[in-house]
Specification:
Blueprint (H helix, E strand, L loop, with lengths): L1 H18 L1 H12 L8 E5 L5 E4 L9 E6 L12 E8 L5 E7 L1 H51 L15 H50 L4 H32 L8 E4 H16 L5 E6 L4 E4 L1 H17 L6 E9 L2 E8 L31 H11 L3 E6 L4 E6 L12 E5 L10
Parallel strand pairs: 7-9
Antiparallel strand pairs: 1-2, 1-5, 3-4, 4-5, 6-8, 7-13, 9-10, 10-12, 11-12
Length: 432
């Protein structure tokens, strides 16, 4: 509006400067006769305040901007309101004034202010209670988490965070924390169990070693006798050190630090190599080892660990079965899935004990008299978990079967399988 008024003032001022007051008066009259909305009003006033021309009301104007309040000589609703005007003095002492009706601006300001006021009231009426309720809900959930965390800090690892049926972000956090607590509880229980197992299983060889050394100290032996006792003690110590070494190896595998050594390797060739190692000795034990290995099966993994995994599974099957037992090692693919099965037709493992054979130091009753610490399958389970392999037991009717399910990312070739027949015995065992 101000730009329009200034433009009109400049144009009329130029007309006055070029053509004089008469032309200015005619120009004012012509412009006021235009019948259009939002046309400016004009006024030319003498130095003594007398109106010379124009429709603007005869009030006291001053140079510059001013607001002139009605009523005006206009048809409703324009007879009341206000006029935004600008006055500029002319060289003869008269005053040229141009103004525009500003009523609609005031009305727009009023409507806008009213609308925003009601909107603010409505928003406040809705938002403030919602914020209060949300804040109370948030504080309640935080208080619940704090209370649960305090209970856990005080030693109650069985405590879990409360989770509502809603889909609140804190409920998702509570579910995640509960899963973490489940894992921590399982690890704590596992550590406690391992500690108890170590104390129980190592007490016997250490006691036996001490008794042997005590007897040797109390007995007047020859040099050769002392040497034999020393050799026997060293053997006992080697067994104890081997147990600790196996435990440390399990801990290293479970830490997943070995994943940095993963490479693409041929699992079929690896298993063939393990079978070939067992072949010369199994024949002497009077057992039969049958291998059916589909070639071309490959996966990402650690060659040393996977070799030990297969070695432990095959070695345990051989070590804990009687003469004449048939042991089968099969690596087969069925569509996109690949599985390794190691089964025997020996005495097997009782159904209630099958889920325990992968626990540290666990040995079934018939295996307790044989050498070993019961860590072989624990190592195998740790290696399988590291590689994403799922290891399961099943009843071979008769005998025991172990199955390794390979991850779906395993790749295979389409060459025919090779079947071999081997007989063998074992050399080292950690026992079921």
């Amino acid at each position: 509006m101000r730009k329009t008024i200034i433009l009109e003032v400049e144009q009329l001022g130029s007309i006055y400067a070029q053509s004089g007051e008469g032309t200015l008066i005619r120009q004012v009259k012509e412009r006021e006769d235009v019948n259009a909305w939002d046309v400016p009003d004009y006024g030319l006033f003498a130095g003594d305040g007398r109106k010379i021309a124009g429709a603007l009301p005869n009030v006291k104007y001053h140079p510059g901007w001013q607001i002139v309040e009605g009523p005006f000589n206009k048809p409703p609703p324009f007879n009341n309101g206000s006029i935004h005007a600008y006055a500029t003095p002319l060289t003869d002492g008269s005053l040229l004034v141009v103004g525009k009706d500003a009523t609609y601006i005031s009305e727009f300001r009023t409507v806008t202010a009213t609308a925003f006021s009601w909107a603010a009231i409505l928003v406040a009426a809705i938002i403030i209670p919602s914020v209060i309720l949300l804040n109370r809900s948030f504080q309640a959930k935080v208080a619940s988490i704090t209370k649960s965390a305090q209970a856990i800090i005080e030693g109650d690892l069985s405590h879990r965070l409360a989770v509502s049926e809603g889909d609140h972000e804190l409920d998702g956090l509570a579910r995640l924390l509960n899963r973490m607590l489940d894992q921590i509880s399982a690890l704590v229980v596992n550590v406690q169990q391992v500690s108890n197992d170590i104390a129980h299983d190592l007490r016997t060889p250490i006691t036996r070693l001490r008794q042997r050394l005590d007897d040797a100290q109390r007995t007047d032996l020859t040099v050769g006798g002392y040497r034999l006792e020393m050799q026997s003690a060293i053997g006992e110590l080697d067994t104890i050190l081997a147990t600790f070494g196996a435990l440390l190896r399990i801990a290293q595998i479970e830490s997943r630090s070995r994943r940095s050594d993963f490479r693409r390797l041929n699992v079929s060739s690896l298993i063939d190599g393990v079978i070939e190692v067992f072949a010369p000795v199994v024949e002497e034990s009077g057992k039969v080892l049958v291998a059916q290995i589909d070639p071309g099966v490959s996966m990402l993994g650690d060659r040393e660990l996977l070799t030990q995994l297969v070695f432990n599974l095959v070695e345990n099957a051989i070590h804990h079965t009687p003469r004449g037992t048939k042991i089968e090692v099969k690596l087969q693919r069925h569509g996109s899935s690949v599985a390794l099965r190691i089964s025997d037709n020996g005495g097997g493992v009782p159904e209630g004990a099958r889920h325990k054979i992968f626990e540290r130091f666990y040995r079934v009753e018939q295996s307790r008299s044989s050498p070993g610490s019961g860590l072989g399958l624990s190592i195998a389970k740790a290696v399988a978990d590291l590689h994403g392999l799922k290891i399961e037991t099943y009843d071979n009717s008769p005998g025991l079967g172990l199955m390794l399910r390979f991850p779906t990312s395993t790749t295979t070739s389409e060459t025919p399988c090779v079947e071999g027949r081997y007989t063998q015995s074992n050399s080292v065992s950690d026992g079921y």
